[in-house]
Amino acid sequence: MTVYQSKAFVYLGRPKAIVRETISIECGPRDLLVEVLMCGRCGTDKTIYHFGHPNVDPYAPVVLGHELVARIVEVGNEVGSLTEGIGYREGHVLPPAYLDFRPGERVTFQPRIARYKDGLMLLPRPIANLSFQINGGYSQYMRVPETMIRSESVLRVPGNVTDEEACLVEPAACALESIFATPHPRDVDEQGRHIYRAGIQPGGNVCIIGSGTVSMIYAALAHLEGAGRIVMIVRSETKKKLVKELLGDKVFVYMAPRTIEDASPETLAAEDAIVHDLSDLTGGYLFDDVVAACASPAAQRLMLKLYTREGYAVGACFGGTHHLVDAADLDANHYRAAKTVGTSGCSTACMKTILTWLASGRLNLRGFISKRRFTLNDDPHEFFTTKADGLKPALYMTEVE
Fold first, then answer.
1. What is the DSSP secondary-structure string of 331-356?
2. Partner residues linked to 134 by β-bridges
3. How far is CA 36 from CA 7, 69, 106, 111, 148, in A?
């Protein structure tokens, strides 16, 4: 059995404890062994680095990183017999075509091996999580255990999808998951029961607060979903230029002044000025869908102020915005005029949808990764803290010396 020596960024189970180590990895009879090509940094990884995580620290030392693309190097001789599905494929027999893994194939991964009910992924008590209990992708090589194979968490990457796009499949699927969960009402039945349609309001107004990679992904998906107008709120001319370079005339970019993260009268007045401007822009209507796609409690507060008051609206809360919202007018939520949908992870079905859209050319995520090319030769602390050029940083493993 071949033992692979792999450089890796290893998290030691406490804040800011990241070290570069060489670890030994081998492929068991029910495993896949993959060479990691590229791995993007998720906001969760950054949070773990700064603050630790109660669901990760007990399993340390562990290799983080779950937004990755890899090439199969070795296939365990019993992998073809793993036909009994678990998690996403609970109660199903895994087909031979799925289990026929071959060295050289590129793959990406569903990192949450979750339980499901009525087709929906359950968040509590997952079977396992890649980069939590299972060593992840900030490594030259990675072992893919039986649980990931049997849950159909190993997803083949079509040949015309770039490595950079493949790294974005999981975060794009997280965004799509929240979009597909947005309950816009369509009618009521004779008893008054509300009837909903899931997804972006076709022809409606969409506002996205943020300008990073996830914000860009939301804008691209909102465009595909048939939004009538997409407004992105950014904080600088540099970000405005970046958004226009990547999304062109698909979006209108509104540059808002920077404010501190408080609920002072000055900050609230600045937020009200933003709402006033965007109300004028939309003829007083505001937005059917609002996405807070940045790690800011003020962004979530602003989201609640931007819902249309003329009907129902949905806000998607994403990327570390689950904070107390000071001084927000919650009447829009309390009186049914708006709903807020959070997302944590994504279903395997949404990941498959993103891969299909990328392969068909319907969705294009090229250019959404930072141009700064980090490798395992770089300082791990710099990788976990960098703002790069405002887009998602990634490790390029094939450039490791």
1. HHHHTTSEEEEE--S--HHHHHHHHH
2. 130
3. 11, 6, 9, 14, 16
What b/e string do you get for 69-96 counting C-beta neighbours within 10 Å, with b at 16 or more? bbbbbbbbeebeebeebbbbbeeeebee
Global pTM value:
0.93
d(CA 50, CA 350): 29
The answer to whether 110 and 88 have CB atoms below 8 angstroms apart is yes
Q: State the amino acid at position 186 in one-letter form.
A: R
Domain match, 239 and 302 both: yes
| 60 and 161 fall within a common domain | yes
Question: Which strand (E) or helix (H) includes residue 103?
Answer: none
| pLDDT value for 328 | 56
Of 363, 100, 398, the closest CA to residue 246 belongs to 363
**Which residues, other chains included, contact 60 with Cβ-Cβ below 8 Å and sequence gap of 6+?**
11, 12, 13, 14
Number of domains in the chain: 2
Looking at the predicted structure, is the pLDDT value of residue 207 above 50?
Answer: yes
The type of residue at 175 is: A
- Cα end-to-end span (Å), the chain: 24
Q: Say if residue 156 is in the same domain as residue 291.
A: no
CA dihedral 388, 389, 395, 401 (to 10 degrees): -80
My answer on whether 361 and 323 are in the same domain is no
Where is average pLDDT lowest: 111-120, 234-243, 287-296? 287-296
Which residue in 207, 225, 337 sits closest to 279, CA to CA? Answer: 207
- State the Cα–Cα distance between residues 319 and 42, nearest whole angstrom: 9
Using CA atoms, how far residue 123 sits from 59, 113, 128, 194, 281, in Å, is: 19, 10, 11, 26, 39
The boundaries of the domain holding residue 145 are 3-174+345-399
What is the DSSP pairing of strand 67-75 with strand 3-11? unpaired
Residue 334 has pLDDT above 70, yes or no: no
